[in-house]
TrEMBL record:
<keyword id="KW-0479">Metal-binding</keyword>
<keyword id="KW-0862">Zinc</keyword>
<keyword id="KW-0546">Nucleotide metabolism</keyword>
<dbReference type="InterPro" id="IPR001365">
    <property type="entry name" value="A_deaminase_dom"/>
</dbReference>
<dbReference type="InterPro" id="IPR032466">
    <property type="entry name" value="Metal_Hydrolase"/>
</dbReference>
<dbReference type="InterPro" id="IPR006330">
    <property type="entry name" value="Ado/ade_deaminase"/>
</dbReference>
<dbReference type="GO" id="GO:0016787">
    <property type="term" value="F:hydrolase activity"/>
</dbReference>
<feature type="site" description="Important for catalytic activity">
    <location>
        <position position="235"/>
    </location>
</feature>
<protein>
    <recommendedName>
        <fullName>Adenosine deaminase</fullName>
        <ecNumber>3.5.4.4</ecNumber>
    </recommendedName>
</protein>
<dbReference type="Pfam" id="PF00962">
    <property type="entry name" value="A_deaminase"/>
</dbReference>
<feature type="binding site">
    <location>
        <position position="22"/>
    </location>
    <ligand>
        <name>Zn(2+)</name>
    </ligand>
</feature>
<feature type="binding site">
    <location>
        <position position="303"/>
    </location>
    <ligand>
        <name>Zn(2+)</name>
    </ligand>
</feature>
<feature type="active site" description="Proton donor">
    <location>
        <position position="214"/>
    </location>
</feature>
<feature type="domain" description="Adenosine deaminase">
    <location>
        <begin position="17"/>
        <end position="357"/>
    </location>
</feature>
<keyword id="KW-0378">Hydrolase</keyword>
<dbReference type="InterPro" id="IPR028893">
    <property type="entry name" value="A_deaminase"/>
</dbReference>
<comment type="similarity">
    <text>Belongs to the metallo-dependent hydrolases superfamily. Adenosine and AMP deaminases family. Adenosine deaminase subfamily.</text>
</comment>
Length: 365
């Protein structure tokens, strides 16, 4: 696929501009921040009180082979994100960490309904997070790192507040919220339970993505696209079940896989997380490369940087090591993501033409 015979190293990859579409705010806290806020608010249920031990616990607990068990550690991060100050800090540090990894555009999602235990309104929750993102952008710019971060508000698929959260997305659409999502355990909670929310988004000419095809199979993907009208797929790795590879290496696409490729539906693939949840057995067996070779619109994402102990650079490195990718491949995946962002077209194009392509041109030489 790539003309480069030698794999790229982590230090070089860190220099590459990156676009991130699938990153959960409550899955990306610094362990030190979790400990610090917990001490401030008197939260004493953490499984460890040492930074390194806590980081190891999150990573180990998340590597469970089950999406349901993978989600359990989030109880601790959500618990320390219940005040405006904490939400602002977490959002600010999120931008700092992404900028340090040369992310030039990021869409970070979170579920406002999980952060109202101490009396905050949904609007106050979103206000605090957006303020943190904005201040993080300014701080990064002051250090010579230009980054744009936008927000997706997420509804929990097991709850009954999706229409309310969709309305929240529209209220804040001109203030930094660019889309809507549903997340949580897939099995037993199909996306069609939230049709009202998706119809509301479409009626308001707004964009949304849906977690589908991660822990559940093709029916989840089919519903997300055919019935709900998703613009992108969160994960979607089980689309591989609709692709048959013959002994001679020729691939045959089923009807669902074909329409997703034909319509250029973006896949928000998260390699390390997909292994941790048991969606795939290993990075080497991840369908990312098959989908990339078949020219699906694949993108590289972190999902949960704390739980997966990862960064965008590390996700790219793992793909490089598994599949031998070079700069031209990483550039294509990055442009795929930027094309698929929920920013207005002119802003997407500006980042592609004025940031991503020029910086890759320097790296490629």
């Amino acid at each position: 696929m790539s003309k480069y015979a030698e794999p790229l190293g982590i230090e070089l990859i860190r220099q590459a501009p990156k676009a991130l579409l699938h990153d959960h705010l409550d899955g990306g806290l610094r362990p030190s921040t979790v400990l610090d806020i917990a001490a401030q608010i008197g939260y004493d249920d953490l499984p460890a009180t040492d930074v390194d031990e806590l980081a190891t616990w999150f990573r180990t607990a998340a590597h469970s082979g089950s999406l349901v068990r993978y989600l359990e550690p989030f109880a601790h991060t959500v618990a320390v994100m219940q005040t405006p100050e904490a939400l602002h800090r977490v959002a600010f540090e999120c931008v700092e960490d992404l900028a340090a990894d040369s992310v030039v555009y990021g869409e970070v999602r979170f579920a406002p309904e999980l952060h109202i235990d101490q009396g905050l309104s949904l609007d106050a929750v979103v206000d605090a997070v957006l303020a943190g993102f904005a201040d993080g952008e300014k701080a990064a710019a002051a250090e010579g790192r230009t980054i744009t971060v936008r927000c997706l508000v997420t509804a929990m698929r097991h709850a009954a507040r999706s229409r309310e959260i969709a309305e929240l997305a529209i209220r804040f659409r001109d203030k930094g919220v660019v889309g809507f999502d549903i997340a949580g355990a897939e099995a037993g909670y199909p996306p069609t339970r939230h049709l009202d929310a998706f119809e509301y988004m479409r009626n308001n000419n707004a964009r949304f993505t849906i977690h589908a095809g991660e822990a559940f199979g093709l029916p989840s993907i089919h519903e997300a696209i055919a019935f709900c009208g998703a613009d992108r797929l969160g994960h979607g790795v089980r689309i591989v079940d609709d692709i048959t590879v013959d002994a001679d290496g020729a691939a045959r696409l089923g009807r669902l896989a074909s329409i997703l490729r034909d319509k250029r539906i973006p896949f928000e693939l998260c390699p390390s997380s997909n292994v941790q949840t048991g969606a795939v057995a290993s990075i080497a067996e991840h369908p990312f490369d098959l989908l990339a070779r078949l020219r699906f619109r694949v993108t590289v994402n972190t999902d949960n940087r704390l739980m997966s102990d990862t960064t965008m650079s590390q996700e790219m490195l793992r793909l490089v090591e598994a599949f031998g990718y070079g700069w031209s491949d990483l550039e294509r995946f990055t442009i795929n993501a930027m094309k698929s962002a929920f920013l207005p077209f002119t802003e997407r194009l500006a980042i592609i033409d004025e940031v991503i392509k020029p910086r890759y041109a320097v790296l490629i030489g």
